[in-house]
Design brief:
The structure is a single chain. The chain is 75% helix and 0% strand. The chain has 12 helices and no strands. The protein is globular and about 85 Å long. It has 306 residues and is an all-alpha fold. α4 runs parallel beside α12 and α9 runs antiparallel to α12. The longest helix is centred in the middle third of the chain and has 36 residues. It has a domain of 167 residues: Orthogonal Bundle (MetI-like fold), CATH 1.10.3720.
Length: 306
């Protein structure tokens, strides 16, 4: 296990460098710049701004200066949020997105997996049909529709929960359920198909023939094998939940990374775009490494390749 972690760290460093390099040059190739919107500023002011951010230098020189900063842990300065470094912005926004993403992932697992198990064990019944309908709706409806419905029902009509901002634990509930709706439905459908497939295996039927209770057979034999494809998707799914909450953060006015990322892209805030991209990539690498570790814990026979 320690060898796996060390190898992933050694792979992670050049991978992050490659991502930072590609993002750096792609942003410079795209038309427009961070100061193009400032139409009313005199050319002298624009020139001073470009000199301040080293944009008056050649592209290789800009790249070299940026790499020097990144190696020291300095992700740069925001071009739009005055007097704020990218490190400061991410330090304030990342915990918010992490809290929201982890809460949504927790809800998706504790709701989606049991729902899929119930649907699989009640295959062909009305309960199975209801589970399929609910999961289909969860996958089909976009998050902004579900968010609007939750705000109307629990915020405006019942007046039970706050509908915006990020000020207490109560403010996490509606955004977390909104963000978790799609992954919950996906996990329910995946769990259902995985459990149904596992229940058809010979060793499961053998356990049933020996007189083992059905629920015990599902838990001890079918579920353990059905969890492998579920764990497979948890890596990228967790990274998506943590980093892909752009729409949800906008709906509920949450000061997370999603809002800053969208603003940075639209404003060509180069350093902030690269910084958030690196954080997203780092979280995805960490999530996939945890999934590989869970593979080995769940079934030690599984060997993890480099």
């Amino acid at each position: 296990m320690s060898k796996l972690i060390i190898k992933r760290i050694l792979i992670m460093l050049p991978l992050l460098w490659l991502i930072a390099t590609l993002t750096f040059f792609l942003l410079r190739v795209l038309p427009g710049g961070p100061f193009d919107a400032e139409k009313n500023l005199p050319p002298e002011i624009i020139a001073n701004l470009k000199a301040k951010y080293h944009m008056d230098r050649t592209l290789p020189e800009q790249y070299y200066i940026y790499l020097q900063r990144v190696v020291k842990g300095d992700l740069g300065i925001s071009y739009k949020y005055l007097d704020r470094s990218v490190n400061d912005i991410l330090a304030s926004a990342l915990p918010v997105s992490l809290t929201l993403g982890i809460a949504a992932l927790f809800l998706a697992i504790i709701i989606g997996v049991p729902l899929g198990i119930v649907a699989a064990t009640k295959k062909g019944t009305a309960i199975d049909a209801m589970c399929i309908i609910c999961s289909t709706l969860g996958v089909s409806l976009p998050s902004f529709v579900i968010g609007a419905l939750l705000i109307f029902v629990f915020g405006i009509w019942l007046k039970l929960l706050p509908v915006a901002l990020w000020e207490s634990a109560w403010h996490v509930i509606l955004p977390a359920f909104t963000l978790a709706s799609g992954p919950t439905a996906y996990l329910a459908r995946l769990t259902r198909s995985s459990v149904i497939d596992a229940l058809s295996k010979d060793w499961v039927r053998t356990a049933q023939i020996k007189g083992e209770p059905y629920l015990q057979t599902v838990i001890n034999h079918a579920l353990r094998n059905a969890l492998i494809p579920i764990i497979t998707v948890l890596g990228p799914l967790s990274a998506i939940l943590i980093t892909g909450s752009f729409v949800v953060e906008t709906i509920y006015a949450i000061p997370g990374m999603g809002r800053f990322f969208i603003t940075a892209v639209s404003n060509r805030d180069y350093d902030l775009v690269i910084g958030t991209t690196l954080i997203f990539a780092l979280l995805l690498i960490i999530a996939n490494t945890i999934v590989d570790i869970l593979y080995h814990i769940l079934d030690p026979r599984i060997t993890i390749s480099d």
